[in-house]
Every structure is written in structure tokens, then in C-alpha cells.
Amino acid sequence: MRRIFFFLEQLEFFGGSETVDITLMNELVKYYEIHLVISDKKQEHISYDIFPKIKIYYLNNSDDVRIDEKIIKNFKDKHYLRVVQIIFKLIYFNIFGKYKYRKLIKNMTNNDDILLACMPETYKMMPKGRTLIYHYHFNSKYFFSFGEKINRLLFHKPKHFVFLSKIIFENIVKKKKKLKNSAIYIENPIKIEPNLNINYFNNNLIYIGRLADQKNPLLLIKVANALKEMDLKFTLEMYGKGKLKAALENEIKKYKLENYVILKGENNDVASIFKNKDLMIVTSTYEGMPLVINEANSQSVPVVTTNFGDSTYDSVPNNCGVVVESFNPNEIAKEIFDLLNDKERLLTLRKNAFENSKRYSKETIINKWLDFLKTI
């Protein structure tokens, strides 16, 4: 049986990239011998259900896990020396340290193995002489950013890129024509069972995501305050962990939103927390193809979102939710207010969101992966 090695940074904290690739490997293990390589050291707590047949290895390389969050947190806390230390370690890893792990991984694998990574931090450890797949979890704007261009100078060219949507694929190969024959797109699979639920739940709103700058949850507190000032009765449950938790707590107190906004921590029972919600709110500055939007739709929960990149309208077609072309909290709040006060439109969006989610069913997406892997 052919082997596939998946590479992830960590298993301790809940994240979209980890969820997607673990969903894939839990299904692909029926057809391939699956190995999972984790950059981090082994932790007591694992946030994911991983099929027991999957073999897990830890590289004990914790210094290179969630680097961006560590830098931002220490900078905001004015630990500038620590920021310099983190950046120095990052530079050292990119220039010298990665070779240690490339050698280790090359010794773990053979010429017939497939190596798949979805993050630049893990992809940099991929060695020469192996079949490499970069499962790219971001949009085309991020792909052409300065940071990503530098990243691509630091790793071996993958045999295949797998992008998350047709529009991301098209926007990238339009500018990088050489990728056309080595890149494809496969959407993220939904792991939870679909549920058609055409009801109204008294303005129950939900946010799910890391409490980190990319997800922009502090903006959502300002949106909640604007809704309160509109005299809207609502509840917003926010699920996730991250370095912005304390800042969110302070903002909730500042705007006297204790009766409106509830920080719930992490909860992996996504189907359960969606079952009595009217809308999910997304305030991200950038994304690839957010799995959580598809999961919300599969439970008949439409989405109001900021424009997070070229895949936004793939993720949220206009008959399934609302895209706000602004990061102004008052404009976002007005869209939410208008929608919640138009029950007929809201229930239509619930039906459409559920129907749209069917194209991301686990069976459909896994079959696309199986067809792709047969060509390698």
C-alpha cells in the first residue's frame, strides 16, 4: 500500500488547516498508509479525532510553531527582546535549521511516498527526491504577496499545488502560467452530517475561529456595539481560543456588552453549536476557502462576512449569505440588522445555504482527491 505523509504544525489548538487535512487523512487511510508528522512536541491534549491507524511522529520543533502569533503577541506586550529572539530563530531556521529536518524526513520516507504539507512553515522541511504536494490554504492575493514570494525561494518546487477553489486556481495560473499543468483545485470537505433546519432563533449569532488578528474578532465587538445601539435584541456566541481573548474581554466590558456577547472557548462539536443559530459572522482580513463557512451552511446557517479575498464569493454566493465590502462596523451591523428584520429573506438564505453546502460533501471531495492521487 502506497504511503502518504501529511505535515502539520501542531495538534493542541483547534484550527481550520488542521481540521481540513485531518478530515482528509481520516478518509484516505482507507486507501493509503497514512503518516502524520507534527512540527511541535507531543502535548497532553489533542484537539482532534485522528483515526487510530494513522501513525503520528513529533519533530519537537516548537520554536517554529505559530510564529506570526508569537511575534504579534510579544510585540503588543512590549517584549521587544523576545520579538528579536523569535525573528532570529526564524531566520536561522530558514537558512540553516530546515536542513536538519529535511534530512530526517528524507530518512523517514522513500521515493514512492507522497509528502503533503499545507503551511509554508512545514513545507520548507520537504526534502529533494520526493513527490511533494503543497496543499495551499490561502487565496491568490496572499500567494503573490512579498512574504510568500520569499517563502517560495526557500523551499523545493512541489510536483503539484492543490488550491482550494476554482477562482483561486484561475487567478494564480493566469499570472503563473507554468503552474497550469502542475496545479489543480479541490475544495475543502465538510466532515459533519448536513441538517436542513428552516427555523428562526431570536437573533442568535455565532462566530467560530481563532482569536487572532487574521480573524479580526475585535472588529466584531464593535459590530455588536453598533447592533446594541440600533436597539436590536441579540446574542452573539464567540467560539475559539487565542491571544486576543483578554483584549476581547476588555472590549466587551468597555461597551457594556456582557448581556449580548459570550466568549465560549473552544468546542469541537460544531453541529451542536450551530443547531440554534440564525447567522454566522466572519470578519477576517484574509482567508483561503474557510471550512467553517461550509460547515455553517451545511447546518442551514447563512453567513455575513467581510470580503477576505478572491474566494469570498465562491464561499458565500449572493443567494446564500451577505458579503460586506467594508470593514466599517456600522456598515456590517446595518447588513446584519436588515437581514434579521427580514425573516422571509433570512429563511430563504437558510434553505439556499444548505443546498449550496452539498457540493462540499465529504464523499464528493474525497473522490476528487482519490482521482487526483491516482495520477501521481
Shape: globular
Indicate the structural class. alpha/beta
> What's the arrangement of strands in the largest beta sheet?
3-2-1-4-5-6-7
Order of helices and strands: EHEEHHEHEHHEHEEHEHEHEHEHEHHH
Number of strands: 13
What summary fits the major beta sheet? 7 strands, parallel
- Measured as a percent range, the helix fraction is 40-55%
Walkthrough of the structure:
The strands form two sheets. Strands 3-2-1-4-5-6-7 form a seven-stranded parallel beta sheet. Strands 10-9-8-11-12-13 form a six-stranded parallel beta sheet, sandwiched between helices. The protein contains 15 helices and 13 strands. The protein starts with a strand and ends with a helix. Helix 8 links the parallel strand 8 and strand 9. Helix content is 42%, strand content 16%. With 376 residues, it is an alpha/beta fold.
